[in-house]
Fold:
Amino acid sequence: MSGMPRVHQDYRVAFLRFLDHGEEAALSTGYDIGRRALGSGLPILDLARVHHEVVIEVLADPHADPVRVAEAASAFLLEVLAPYEMSRRSTDEVD
Structure:
């Protein structure tokens, strides 16, 4: 998929910003990444793969605090997946 490197790069930058500063703006960027991914037809499993790859990269740093990374990763992933959940719910309401 041609957009995957860009999604990975954007995801990594926003996640690291959230991890480093806990900024609400980084969560908002995560939501936007999810919205763009959904709009471009990126399957949710591909987005989950990007999340996993980024978290593994971050945890490879010997100075990373695994508990802090895991907590931030969970919060960030929920924000990224929110557009997918909203889309699913709106489809369920139509059915």
